[in-house]
Amino acid sequence: xxxxxxxxxxxxxxxxxxxxxxxxxxxxxxxxxxxxxxxxxxxxxxxxxxxxxxxxxxxxxxxxxxxxxxxxxxxxxxxxxxxxxxxxxxxxxxxxxxxxxxxxxxxxxxxxxxxxxxxxxxxxxxxxxxxx
Length: 132
Known about the structure:
Blueprint: H1 3-21, E1 55-58, H2 59-71, E2 79-89, E3 92-105, E4 114-119, E5 125-126
Antiparallel strand pairs: 1-4, 2-3, 3-4, 3-5
């Protein structure tokens, strides 16, 4: 297989992956009305980079997120976004993540001082809301 054929095969695969991801609605604007329970967790990326296996949420926020995840499990997906693209268009500011990861919330311990939040780092996908 020539180098050109290898590159065409890779591009075809990536295109297929992107089209497959478009089945999900994605996150088009973290400040928009469709994104609920949005929360910026840190100034540094520690989960998607693999630097830390989990982060600790405040109990109030973690309990609220856990309840919403259980209530809307069929209509909505709880995702963690990384590498944000931001801008200003049509008189409004917007911000959307390039990468999405499924969130893993374990059972809530009401006696704990924090709620552990993990992501499934191997199940990342491109945000289908990004238009090419």
